[in-house]
Amino acid sequence: MAHPQLSEDAIDDILYLSRANEVSELFSYLSDLSQQTGLSNADLVAAAKDPYSQNTALHYAAANGHLEILKALLADKDTAAKSAINALNDSGNTPLHWAALNGHLECVKFLVERGADVTVINKAGHDAVFEAEINDKKDVVDWLLGAVEELEKGIAGGKVGEASGSGSSDEVGDMTIRMGKMDTEDGNAHG
Description:
- Residues 159-191 are annotated as: Disordered.
- InterPro entries: Ankyrin_rpt, Ankyrin_rpt-contain_sf.
- The chain is mainly alpha-helical and 191 residues long.
- The chain has eleven helices and two strands; from the N terminus they run H-H-H-H-H-H-H-H-H-H-H-E-E.
- It has a two-stranded antiparallel sheet with strand order 1-2.
- The protein is elongated, with a radius of gyration of 17 Å.
- Mean pLDDT is 81; it is low at 158-191.
C-alpha cells in the first residue's frame, strides 16, 4: 500500500517530536493532522519518513531510548504499524538496529515483543545483535541471543537445531552475529 504524501513540515514535526520524546505534543499534532487529512495516526506515522535518510519516527524514538513514544506509536496493531516496525532506512537499519546499537534494552525488548525482525541484515552486513556487540552493549546482546534461542525453539517445535531443516543451534547464533556500522551524530544514532 502506498503511503499518503505529507508536507515536508508535517514530516519534520512528526520526526522531531518523536526524537525529542514529546509524547503529548506528538499525539496532539497527529490528532490534528488526522482530522485535516482523514488518515489514521498509524498511516501518518508510516508516511513520515525523512526524504534523504528514510528514517522514521520509530527509528528516532528507538535510537534515543524513548520507550513511551515507541509504545504510543505502535499501540495500533494494524498493517501500517506492523510494517513500520521493520522499516529500513537508507542504510538498511531498522528501529531495532538503532535501539540495540545505543543499548536501549527496554526498547529492544518492546520492539521484539511487537514483532521486530531480529534477523534483518543492514547494508553493512550486520544484524541488531552485532550492532549491540560492536558497541559494547552486552546486556542487549545477551537478551537478543536469548530471544533468538527462544524463537529457534518455537520454530523447531521445542527441538533446538532442527529449525529449517539443516543446522545446529550454533548456526542461529552465528546468523545473529552479522550486522553493520551506523553513523552517529551528537551522540545519537542517525545512520
